[in-house]
Structures are given as structure tokens and as C-alpha cells.
Amino acid sequence: MHAAGPLVLVVDDDATARRMLDVRMRALGCQVAMAETGREALAAIERDLPAVLLLDLQMPEIDGMEVLRTLNREGVDVPTIVITAHGTVETAVEAMKEGAVDFILKPFDPQYLEIAVRRALERRQLLDSNQLFRDALAARSSDILGESPLIQAAVQTAKKAAGTNSTVLLLGESGTGKEVFAHTIHQWSPRRDKPFVVVNCVALSEHLLESELFGHEKGAFTGAHQAKKGKFEAANGGTVFLDEIGDMPPSLQTKLLRVLHDHEFERVGGSRPISTDIRVLAATNRDLDEAVKAGRFRADLFYRLNVIRIVLPPLRDRKEDIPALAQHFRARYAADTKRPVRRISAEAMDCLCRQDWPGNVRELANTIERAVVLCSGETITPADLALPGVHPASPPQDPVPAAEADGFHDQINHYRRQVLLTALRRADGNQTQAAKLLGIRRTSFLRLMRKLDIREDQVIQ
Fold it and tell me: Which of 7, 29, 37, 256 is most open to solvent, judged by the fewest CB atoms within 10 Å of its CB?
């Protein structure tokens, strides 16, 4: 089975020209989509971004120039070859200024048409490669994303702590990004070129965790056929991140206290002190203050760990950061899976912002990863998210029938109007409360009201 060829969208109100271009493009191994008007072209591009756009400039209502300007305003980058009749070359030059990559004259020269399309397809491949490269770079960025006051306060504390050797205790619910913070603190520190070692204190049994941290000598226990360095020894000069420190067994808490105090330890089964130069970062989702009071966690160890405390907020308390996080994860997983998923629709982003995210950033990341894998096009839609309790695909109570609507954009705007009006009616006209119901900022809500021409008198049912 052969792979489908690149998609070429032909936009021309001349049926004869469309048929001829269809034959030529299929001969080049391309898939072909057709549009008779500029409005149809914009709707088709929103549904499925073509590899190349063949665009007639002379069309009724929305002409080719307006299509180009609209694509520029919305940031849609598609290599466009404009088609023009004799006597309108000046217009073609203007179209090139608007971003068109080439133009052809009617009647078509088949050989030049083929050359122009092949050049445009090469440009599309280059754009795709550049996007994958940018996504790969974004995915590997160690910067902490978020502009909310809560996360920025945590970032400022982390930056101040990074340049020191002080122990940092990261607190917060599961999935709030404690390991990301720990790794970033290491990257910001003078130890950045040395090892960053992660140890999960709850993933191993007590004896395995002891061997993992401190290492063991040959014959120390059954199966210890040779000596092994522990994480504290292997990380010399670098940083050790102790995740889930609140679950560390009491016997190991005592040994850890000595490492923090004297920077010395012995391997399991050994008696020779081993010195190590490490910086310790620790994290837990447990209430260590309560654990100390209950006697489950050593108070002296807690005080050694709690030199600099950073509390990471749950995602439900920093919803304004969701768009940036979602786009970051889209870039990461698109790069990892080599899938051309380039954007998240406004409706899908609204759905993401309305969720409470009990699993926090980790749950959001998993949701975006699933959406990237399931997405059938280049845009993640609400259906791709499969979020519980959200029904973004449900039509409004009084939708405009497709035959009566002026076009795709009008139907979408009508749907948005109904969503906003429904929220306003549920909130008895209170715009702030309506914005909260939709999980968006009041300023964004008011901007949408103005854009969709919603007046206060329309809120009354």
C-alpha cells in the first residue's frame, strides 16, 4: 500500500481550470482538494492544512488577496502559488509581498506549473523540518513554564537557592513538577556539569534502597557478588534528588542525617568511611510537619532538609499557565512521535482550562500526549482530549442549520455566541461569574463578547 501524497488545495471559481489543475496535480502524485470561493478555501484550510495552495486571485466575494491576508493574520503558513490572468501581473507581485511563493499565468504552462509545485512542496518539507527542530528544542527546554504569581514566586526562590549548597525541600501534590524544579535548580547551579542523580525513596524496599543510596561491599548480602557504588558516591560533585523523602524508612533517615551533616557514609557491609561532595534536594507530597509531630519522621533530619522550602502550587490554582504548558507538551510529544500536530484549537484549550486536574501537570502532560497520538490532523480538537465531564462537541440548543449558515467561520462564531450567552444566563448576567464558569479570564471573556457583538440586553432569555 502506497503512502498518500501531499495535499494540494486548488481554489478557483473556473470549473475548467479546476479540472485541469486536478489532472496535473494527480499526475504528480498529489492528493487534491477543491474550493470554488475564498470562503470555502479558508474553511478547507482550517479543517486540513494543505502542503501547497493553488490560489486564483480573481474570485467574487472573498478574492485571493483577501485569503492571503487572512492566512497572514491568523499565522497560517502554507506555501501558496497564485494564479492570475494576463494583465494582472502587478496584482501577482502584490500577492508575493503578502507571502505567496510563486505565481503562474493563465493559460497554464504545464512544465512551469510542475516546477512551481515541486518548489512549493520542497518549501513545505523545509517548513515541516524546521517545525520539528523547533519542537524538539522546546521539548528539551529545562525552563519552568508559567507566569502565574504562585509559580513565579517559587521560581524566584529556586533561582536564589540554586547558587548555594543549601538543601532544598520541595513540597506539593503529586504531579506538580517537583522533579522538574529539582533538575532546573541543578541546571542553574555551579554543579550543572556534574551528575544529577534521582532516587525514588518509595519505589524500593528498605534494603534495596539502602544499597541504592550507600552502595555495598562484595559479600555484604546474598547476591552481592561484587562491590557496588551507591548513588551518593556516584553523584560526587553533583546533585542528589531524593523523591518521596517522606516515605523513607526510619533506619535510613538516621544514615541520611550523617551524610547531610558530615558528608560521609559507609557502604552496606563496609567499615571504611567514604567522603562525598553532594548537594541534596528532597521532595514529598506528604505533610512533613505533621509526620514529625506524629513521630514518623525524624525532627533533626527534617530541620536539615527544610533549609529552603519551596511549595509548588496545584495546577487548579494556576490555570492561567495551562495554555503555555499545553503548547509545551504538544511540541514535546509531536517531536517524540514525529507527528505533524502543530496547534491546539481554541475550543480544546477552553476545555483544558475548565478542568480541575487532580493529577496536576503530570495529568495534563498525559492528556496532551494521548491527544497528539490520537489526533488525525494538525490541530488538537476537544474530541482528541477525551476529558471526563466535558462535552465540547455538543451542539448549542438552537444551532444554525448548515444549509442556512453563511460558512464555516459563521457557524463557529454562532456556536461561541451560544456558549457565552448560556454562561451569562447561568450567572444571571454577571460577567465575572460567567468567565469563571467557562474557566477563562474576565478580560478574555469581555474580548470575546466584543468580538461576537454580544450586548447585555441579549442575555435576557
Answer: 29
